[in-house]
Amino acid sequence: MRAPAEGVNDELTGSGQAPAPAPTGLRRAHAWVSTTYFAEGYPYSIVNNLADILFKELGASLQVVGLTSLFHLPWNLKFLWGPFVDDYETKRRWLLASEVAITIVIVLLGLLAAAGSASLPALAAGFLLLAVLSATHDIAIDGYYLELLSERDQSTFVGYRAAAYKVAGLLVKGPLIALCALLGWTAGLLGAALVMALLLGIHTWLLPDRETRRRPWTTLAKLASWRTLPFLLAATLLYGLERSWAVGTQLLAAWRSLAPAWLTKISVGGWIGIALLASLLALLAALPALRRRMRTAGEAGEAGLSSYASTFVSFLEQPKIGLMLAFVLLFRTGESFLLKMSWPFFDDVVGLELESYAAMQGGAGTIAMLLGTIIGGRLIARDGLRRWIWPFVLAQNLLNLLYMGLAMSTDPGATSDTIVTAVLAAENFGSGLGTAAFMVYLMRTCDPRHKAGHFAIVSALMSVSFTVAGVLSGFLADALGFATYFGFTFLATIPMMVLIPFVPHLDRRESADAE
């Protein structure tokens, strides 16, 4: 029997046909993995790193500039429409259609920028639309990656996707912003659109078309009924708030004055992650009723709604779902606490200049992290996740104690830049190894029938640990002191480590029948 083609999922497609042989040359998997994840990070960085600079340059107030953080909301909410990417057309078509729309919107943003401050409301709407399209693009890329690659190849390329995503962000933060400063915002954004158009052309030619087509996009219209009205009203309200800068600023000020201090530290994205977790737990308790409702919907001809619900139900029907959710939520707890207090420690105790810290993190730190992710992914592909989960988890979290050592030294302020760089590089390398293990595990939690939807769910859940760290980190560091606090960042990982012997999917993805 012929061996499976390199870089292509070795399972049968939905039509019962084995995938065609893998493409050669430029069509090899490492090429499209790199270009698609560059294309994923590129518009994300435009929305999250360039929009606030543009608004400030056009004369927006500091309150309005702060509200540009709301543009990140679609990435927090993308699990809501992830199931549609699974159930309609193919992920390749979603990917290409998203890139067409993203290119057009970036061109429109460039033209609007020429109007100056008068165009701020229209720019706000444009960036919000770009964010929705980019989040949808992310869902399609992640689903396509999971669809075409076998579990082994998913592990192999996890480092390449991280590297490509990071390079895209660096390109926006550096050369693109410099181009905008040199030639003006219109020329700079048109240049950004040209890059996106080139990526679209590459992907139209490069991406293998090996998926089984699902329902056509036209059938999405059948879901438009009274049931969707609450969602349309909510979207209208969000759009109205986005346009009403003064109202948004007043609401934000009122919230900060009335709410407890620790609650104001939770971002909107953090609240969404918490709400998703609470909703999943509620759905878990109501699974029998949900199954009955889905059967009724299917019998009534509401296949679209039944399929949408099945994304969430099938996620919760996985073996040992409670252990799996706890593991996902706790995996990055120690790292989250460390990252929140890294710069305050180097600023207040070590006396490091911000420029030096940024150079060390952006240089040695970034390189070390990418190397860790690439090496970790290849080792997992070679030997399996179970073989490397413990070494990588320990590398990710034991290296936190290097910060503790710096804080306990006789004179932290006398620490040389070489030692600080070495500590940052070592910690980032360990973080890269941990990221490789975590990303491989997250991919294994995705049911083959609902790859895009499930990955969108677990991606949203990842934010919960960062939210908890954001709320508690400052209070704990102030109460414990930095030395004890960094020791705590390691202890905070112990509950996750206790779960490792019991969680599913370490050897391979387990089906719901495995329980």
UniProtKB/TrEMBL annotation:
This is Muropeptide transporter. It comes from the Bacteria. The chain crosses the membrane at residues 95-115, 176-202, 223-241, 261-287, 321-339, 359-381, 388-407, 419-443, 455-476, 482-503. PANTHER family: MAJOR FACILITATOR SUPERFAMILY DOMAIN-CONTAINING PROTEIN 3, SOLUTE CARRIER FAMILY 33 ACETYL-COA TRANSPORTER -RELATED. Residues 1-24 are annotated as: Disordered. It is found in: Membrane. GO terms for molecular function: transmembrane transporter activity. GO terms for cellular component: membrane. InterPro entries: AmpG_permease/AT-1 (IPR004752), MFS (IPR011701), MFS_dom (IPR020846), MFS_trans_sf (IPR036259). Residues 321-515 form the Major facilitator superfamily (MFS) profile domain. Its main location: membrane. Keywords: Membrane, Transmembrane, Transmembrane helix, Transport. Pfam families: MFS_1. It is a multi-pass membrane protein.
